[in-house]
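Dear H.,

Thanks for agreeing to be a second pair of eyes. The structure we're designing against is below in token form, covering all 333 positions.
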């Protein structure tokens, strides 16, 4: 079976590609390196250095593809409030271009990796039957992409599954990005002998999912008939912890004793975000195999081995005003 993975140099895309290649799938994919590392790639994959927004190039790359797994995304929820043009272009336009290219090549199924941002601020744990309530441009673009995918499926008769991962962590994640990946930011800073930077009072709570606990669910969705035309949360609904607790755990792993630094809340940040994974357990046989402590330790080992790095402010802030986090305007992270 020929599988095409968008964002194949990124964290989720590359992890999935390596996993599926071991299971004898033919793997190809594209990336523009906004959020990935070149050493995430392998000669075992056919790689296209093209942007998802480039429809004609994507159309050529997707020839003879059976299943498209769309992982590529500028997954910058907080940043999308201050760089909405950049983020939404690389979510919505990139996705529609990719879907169009896939459909023109008669792809049999599209698996789309959406975001927990689709739920916004409402009662938790979030379940798939809830009405979407995104509260930032990133989440809005993700939900709009879901709607287009379903609409095109009704017209052009292909199968789809929408998967909703929870805060994925682990090796191959970009850890020198100042705008996202809170666990990796904490660990990288501590390895640089710098304290964790926390927005607000740190009482906001999340669940974190080790990448291997997500990729086997994505593989299952390729063939699983029950996943057809379903939206499914994937990730743990255990170990729901505060950002303060996460920072403490990262300090323990790195043996860093500095006090955390606190800045003002980021606008539109959801206070409490966790999903129920009961549907994934039922349909995809989801199981949490890695604890949070194991996830932190494995992520730390990867960053330490690869080498701590200063943060790369490679994305411009489109809107700078009194609400823009000082940590970004002044490049404090």
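And this is the sequence the design step returned. I haven't edited it by hand at all.
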């Amino acid at each position: 079976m020929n599988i095409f993975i968008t964002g194949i140099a990124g964290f989720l895309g590359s992890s999935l590609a390596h996993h599926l290649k071991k299971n004898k799938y033919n793997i190809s994919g594209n990336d523009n390196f906004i959020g990935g590392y070149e050493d995430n790639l392998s000669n075992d994959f056919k790689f296209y250095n093209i942007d998802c927004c480039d429809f004609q190039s994507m159309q050529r790359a997707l020839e003879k593809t059976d299943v498209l797994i769309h992982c590529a995304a500028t997954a910058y929820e907080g940043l999308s409030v201050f760089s909405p043009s950049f983020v939404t272009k690389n979510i919505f336009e990139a996705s529609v271009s990719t879907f169009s290219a896939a459909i023109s090549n008669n792809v049999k199924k599209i698996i789309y990796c959406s975001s927990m941002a689709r739920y916004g601020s409402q009662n938790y744990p979030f379940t798939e039957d809830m009405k979407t309530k995104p509260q930032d441009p990133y989440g809005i673009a993700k939900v709009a992409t879901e709607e287009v995918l379903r609409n095109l499926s009704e017209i052009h008769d292909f199968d789809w599954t929408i998967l909703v991962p929870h805060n994925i962590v682990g090796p191959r994640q970009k850890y020198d990005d100042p705008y996202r990946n809170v666990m990796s930011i904490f660990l990288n800073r501590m390895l640089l002998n710098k304290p964790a930077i926390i927005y607000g009072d740190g009482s906001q709570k999340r669940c974190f999912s080790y990448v291997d606990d997500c990729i086997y669910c994505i593989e299952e969705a390729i063939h699983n008939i029950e996943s057809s035309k379903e939206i499914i949360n994937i990730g743990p609904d255990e170990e729901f912890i505060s950002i303060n607790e996460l920072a403490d755990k990262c300090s323990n792993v790195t043996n860093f004793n500095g006090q955390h630094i606190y800045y003002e809340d980021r606008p539109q940040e959801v206070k409490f975000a966790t999903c129920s994974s009961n549907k994934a357990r039922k349909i995809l046989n989801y199981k949490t195999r890695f604890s949070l402590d194991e996830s932190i330790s494995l992520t730390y080992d990867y960053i330490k081995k690869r080498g701590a790095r200063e943060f790369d402010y490679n994305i411009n802030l489109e809107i700078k005003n009194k609400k823009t986090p000082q940590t970004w305007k002044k490049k404090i992270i």
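Two observations from my side: The first helix runs from residue 11 to 22. The mean pLDDT is 97.

Warmly,
E.
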